[in-house]
Design goal:
It contains 16 helices and 18 strands. With about 450 residues, the chain is α/β, with parallel strands linked by helices. The protein folds into two domains: about 1-60 and about 365-415, Roll (Urease, subunit C, domain 1), CATH 2.30.40; about 60-355, Alpha-Beta Barrel (TIM Barrel), CATH 3.20.20.140. Strands 1, 2, 3, 4, 5, 15, 16, 17 and 18 form a nine-stranded mixed sheet that branches. It has a five-stranded parallel sheet with strand order 10-11-12-13-14. Strands 6-7-8-9 form a four-stranded parallel sheet. β10 (about 190-195), α6 and β11 form a beta-alpha-beta unit. α8 packs parallel to α9 (about 265-275). The N and C termini lie far apart (about 55 Å).
Length: about 450
């Protein structure tokens, strides 16, 4: 038994912060929350973790990341720079990044980004990999690394027909092999995944969804990241993307739809009505020029929405700031997306989107996934401002300790068992190999 006692406890982003409260951890779960006095009285023999000057809050859930994406940070631009989302994919991302990846590159990026995420308070994540030349076996190679780092991870291969039927079949088989290799309760497991409606036929999507249903896991797809997919569906299928998925019978709670940027009012309503889970990547959507997703409207309608980095900037404090600020500008309303709503998306909301059981809150019986963050702000901390102080004025450097499933993975700003300089050097070496293939 261990008591983790900070100045403040945020047990759940939908409830006010609690001054002078902490948590008791037993094994991999939260045994109790309470005041310092109550916990020390109830558990007199417990080990004490003194977190004075800090707030204890749930670990972040990065509900959409491309771990390999770090290899492309700063990559030289193509000879003909992308002018829209389609050219970004067809002329840049697919040929220069995804089609050039191999297992060694992916392993280096996975190890480094896992450590990077831990250092910034992320305890759970969902990764999407597309690397046709790394098949087969790349997801199992990733699984070993994630398990060693001790994160709660969901992995998938983004199956697609864009590279031909053989690669498409291999992509589905890669997902199925990982899912079948995992056991209930493992920290690392898998989802089924296909790319988009414009790279996958209806028959292929239905096959993928059936494989997921048979295994009791979610399916994931990117959805309307820019205007291209919706326009393609209207021109080629005579309906919008969400309507197409609905016609296939896959639009429901077993579908995790990422991005959801360019949506009609009808598509927004259909996503909510069908219970489709959604993930939001505010910074990456801006970077690729896709637009700004209507997340406040979706949340107000009752959608389940998680937050993701997309592998662009993985410090989740920066991602939260993006979600906090960009919608205020879009809607010209400073009251939308308050800090507690953003923090909920980054924790329990992301866990709900990924269908993670008892993850994202700190209360008895829930997973002992947490972070300890400094509260040495320039202004006084109160119950009424702590959420906003965290979202606006913290970053990875303020995360002191991180626990996943009851095990400390970061202590005193050090990622345990990780030589960050070595991991960074390995990643730089593999990035240079990738860039040399241009």
């Amino acid at each position: 038994m261990e008591l983790i006692l900070g100045d403040w406890l945020i047990a759940d982003a939908t409830s006010p912060p609690l001054a002078g409260w902490g948590v008791a951890v037993d094994g991999d779960t939260i045994a109790a929350t309470g005041t310092h006095a109550d916990l020390t009285t109830a558990y007199p023999d417990a080990t004490l973790r003194d977190c004075a000057g800090h707030v204890v809050l749930p670990g972040f859930v990065n509900a959409h990341v491309h771990l390999y994406g770090t290899l492309a940070h700063g990559i030289p631009a193509a000879d003909n720079p992308p002018t829209d989302f389609w050219s970004f994919l067809a002329d840049y991302w697919w040929p220069l990044v995804e089609d050039a990846l191999d297992v060694e590159m992916i392993q280096a990026a996975t190890d480094y980004v896992c450590a990077e995420m831990l250092a910034s308070g992320t305890t759970s994540f969902y990764d999407i990999l597309e690397a046709p030349k790394a098949l087969p076996g790349v997801l199992l190679a990733q699984k070993e690394i994630v398990a060693r780092r001790g994160l709660r991870g969901r992995l998938s291969f983004e199956a697609t027909e864009r590279a031909g039927p053989e690669i498409a079949t291999r992509g589905l088989a890669e997902n199925a092999a990982l899912i079948d290799d995992c056991e209930r309760g493992d920290l690392v497991d898998g989802l089924m995944c296909w790319h988009t409606a414009f790279t996958c036929s209806g028959d292929f999507i239905t096959e993928a969804f059936g494989l997921a249903t048979d295994r009791g896991v979610l399916s994931h797809a990117h959805l309307n990241e820019g205007v291209h997919e919706g326009e393609w569906c209207e021109q080629n299928l005579g309906m919008g993307t969400v309507e197409f998925y609905d016609s296939l019978g896959v639009a429901g709670p077993q579908l995790l739809a990422s991005q959801c940027v360019q949506l009609t009012a009808h598509e927004r309503s259909l996503l909510v009505e069908r219970g489709v889970r959604i993930t939001h990547m505010p910074l990456a959507n801006c970077e690729v020029g896709g637009g700004i997703a209507p997340i406040p409207e979706l949340l107000d309608s009752g959608a389940t929405v998680g937050l993701g980095s997309d592998g662009y900037i993985n410090d989740f404090y920066a991602v939260m700031r993006g979600a906090f600020l960009v919608h205020k500008a879009r809607l010209q309303d400073p009251g939308v997306m308050p800090a507690d709503r953003v923090l909920h998306m980054a924790t329990a909301g992301g866990a709900a989107a990924l269908n993670l059981d008892r993850v994202g809150r700190l209360e008895a019986g829930w997973a002992a996934d947490l972070q300890v963050v400094a509260t040495d702000f320039a202004t006084p901390v109160t119950e009424h401002n702590l959420f906003e102080q965290l979202v606006l004025w913290r970053n990875h450097r303020d995360v002191r300790d991180v626990m996943v499933a009851g095990a400390w993975r970061v202590q005193n700003h050090e990622v345990l068992g990780a030589d960050m300089a070595k991991l960074r050097a390995q990643t730089r070496e593999q990035a240079a190999r990738l860039w040399a293939k241009r």
